[in-house]
Amino acid sequence: MFVDEARVRVKAGDGGRGCISFRREAHVPRGGPDGGDGGDGGSIYLVASRSYRTLSDQRYQQQYRAENGAHGRGKTMHGRRGADLIISVPLGTIVEDAETRELLADLIHEREQVLVAQGGKGGRGNARFATATRQAPRLAQPGGEGEQRLLQLTLKLLADVGLIGLPNAGKSALLCCITAAQSKVAAYPFTTLTPHLGTVEIDPLGALVVADIPGLIEGAATGAGLGIRFLRHIERTRLLVHVIDVSDDARDPLEALSVVEGELRAFDPALLQRARVIAANKIDLPHATRLPALTALCAERAIPLFPISAMTGEGVEALVQYAAAQLQTSSRLQVPGAKCQAGDPAGPNQKPETRNPKLRSRQSFHE
Ligand SMILES: Nc1nc2c(ncn2[C@@H]2O[C@H](COP(=O)(O)OP(=O)(O)OP(=O)(O)O)[C@@H](O)[C@H]2O)c(=O)[nH]1
Ligand SMILES: [Mg+2]
After folding, report:
1. Does the N-terminal peptide bond of residue 253 adopt cis geometry, omega within 30 degrees of 0?
2. 161-328 in CATH: which number?
3. Which CATH fold topology does 1-155 show?
4. From 76, 112, 181, 293, which residue has the greatest number of CB atoms within 10 Å?
């Protein structure tokens, strides 16, 4: 199941109590204070991982707790540290504090991590309070409380190119034509219910990630069809490919263009400023009356247009080359204001990987 939103409560471990104890041993009169310190509570980290595609684990497990620190003991024995808890989330997860709406992180790189709940400090034992004038202190500190938070997790897929258009325009057919993805293609509207990603290998540039999202219809902004919430998955793309069915039996392509533009505007007007190209699809079918009108309008508005057939592959290569050339000149977009470097992914703080694997979420995949 594809889940792109989740709300989880995290509670870091409490620190262990410091101990009050005195050394008692034969032939050692008044052995002095020997109460050890409590261990620190475990902290909770979110770590971005390529192995996860959705937030479905966080939909089912909504409470996370890290281990408490152990209490200090006599003979100045220090309590054990509580194990940290690592929660793996997919790349592209935005982490916010659900109560204050503070943006905590935008995790877009593999192994990037953020500390979301700091474990409590262990309390000091009475051995620490001995001074020259107070040689038998009967006091120790309690452990500090672990931080707790309600987190709002939102997944915004990381893709270079976003495919948009009315239902049945051929978006999934185009994705399947240019990538090895297996997005369902069928002759009825709303075949695609969740976003799908595919990768196009382009020599020598590397790979382009393409996102296919469910079709948009009039009034999607007010909830018609599948709504516009999936548009968040193309927010980070640098190029939008608007797929329009130009076959003679289809809806007027000029109308198709304006309906989708209207819904983009309703979601976020900035999307209309994004680099855009029209893929006039289904040219293998009769299209004599529809294509010329759309071509003229696009020329007038200076929007590049590529006549293609996702079915036969005609014209698709030119579209892909154009997309690759466009993307060479722009860099990937990140949520403004995100400070996701809470842990250096390649730095020395690699502890999370090894900590308490039992509590790590299970692996999950795209639908
Ligand atoms: N003849 C022809 N048929 C096409 C072409 N591209 C797509 N189709 C057909 O159009 C229908 C819809 O294609 P999809 O790729 O499922 O359309 P979609 O835009 O993903 O639709 P939703 O997922 O419902 O939004 C399918 O029956 C495809 O076989 C094309 O280039 N030529
Ligand atoms: Mg589809």
Report:
1. no
2. 3.40.50.300
3. Spo0b-associated Gtp-binding Protein; Chain: A, (2.70.210)
4. 112
